[in-house]
């Protein structure tokens, strides 16, 4: 059974056949902004970041 992500408000619909994989990262501070490190192989690729209500953990 394939997975499907659907966001009705913006019309976004992704299925397993369109997704290479999922990454879970914690957003960390950088200056006056924030970042989420991902592998360099994804440079130039279109990405979707899904914000969860649950807080992640940050270790400095």
The overall strand count is: 4
Radius of gyration: 14 Å
Number of helices: 0
Q: Which runs of at least 5 residues are low in confidence (pLDDT < 50)?
A: none
Q: What characteristic shape results from the CA principal axes?
A: globular
Explain what you see.
- The protein has a two-stranded antiparallel sheet. Strands 3-4 form a two-stranded antiparallel ribbon.
- The chain is globular.
- It has 60 residues and is mainly β.
- It has a domain of 32 residues.
- The relative contact order is 0.19.
- The N and C termini lie far apart (40 Å).
- It has no helices and four strands.
Task: Fill in the keyword field for this structure.
60 residues, single chain, two-stranded antiparallel sheet, mainly beta, 4 strands, 23% strand
